[in-house]
Amino acid sequence: MGDSVGVTTPPVESPGALPRPTVAIPAGRAAGVLGRGLVDPADPVLAAEDLGLGRGDGCFETLRVLAGEDPGEQRRVQGWDAHLDRLERSCAALELPRPDRAAWAALAAELVASAGSGESALKLMVTRGLPGSGVPTGVATLAPLPASALRQREAGIAVVSLSRGTPADAHADAPWLLGGVKTLSYAVHTAAVREAERRGADDALLVSTDGFALEGPTSSLLWWADGALRTTPAGPTGILTGTTQEALFAAAADEGVRVEAALVPVVDLTAADAAWFASSVRGIVEVISLDGVPLPRLPELTARWRRLAGF
Question: 20 to 30 A from 264, CA-CA: which of 35, 208, 275, 306?
Fold first, then answer.
């Protein structure tokens, strides 16, 4: 097994194949493949039998891209090193080759140059590639941040609790469950968000079968109680350690804030002084209600956490 991510080249379209429909690509969108550079975002880049497509066998990272405030100012990718560190950990857990950081940085720079004004999301994806090939595929995309993410950042989110279906320590002795790994297999996460929306909420809080609040489908859970900023512990819980949460906790601790990792029963979360979801795309978002129960809001702390996390 090599030391860097290679590229699987998709099959060449045969002369008798149906013509590909013309797709209008909105401004600010771009795509690229490791080893090839930029490609048309509407072009196929995976072979039909790629295990990332057929099995969700791979991992990814999503990073926030900030456009310069002044014309000509360089765009900035937030938390690059932290995200690449986590991508390396995910690849190691999946027994995939270690990502070539220089190659990813070069590809990301090409995509980021296509970013429009405002904020964008840069996604880096690694698939296992064709069965038996041992050659992963690396793909990156860039797209403007969804309007819903910006709206929720300002307005806050209503959240409903949904069962994860396992106890809080389910991942303690089961590494094959890939706890803490950001895999491509996100169907359960997106299904949880759809269920939350069916119930009239904006997002879901995943809860263990023994009653502990864990995380959002794409976010870390934060809450303020007894003068401490808290989040769910990783490890046995199997939650994904968030890069935004880690950056916030490090900066908050430097300012003398007490930060802790602790399990909290979901029934006790409504007694917290405030709660937030944290992610790379939405940033620090206030949880304004849980299962229909309004939660306190602390705008001063929200503003402080956003400043410390770079939002």
Answer: 306
3-state secondary structure of 177: helix
State the 10-residue block means of pLDDT for the chain, 311 residues long: 39 43 67 96 94 97 85 82 98 98 97 87 98 96 95 98 98 95 97 98 99 98 98 97 98 98 97 98 98 98 98 93
SS3 (DSSP) at 184: coil
Q: Are 29 and 143 in contact (CB under 8 A)?
A: yes
Check if the beta carbon of residue 224 is closer than 8 Å to that of residue 283: no
pTM over 0.70: yes
Give yes or no for a contact between 59 and 91, defined as CB atoms under 8 angstroms apart.
yes
As a CATH number, domain 150-309 is 3.20.10.10
Neighbour count for residue 228 (Cβ, 10 Å): 13
Give Cα separations from 238 to 174, 179, 258 (angstroms): 10, 4, 24
* β-sheet bridge partners, residue 212: 265
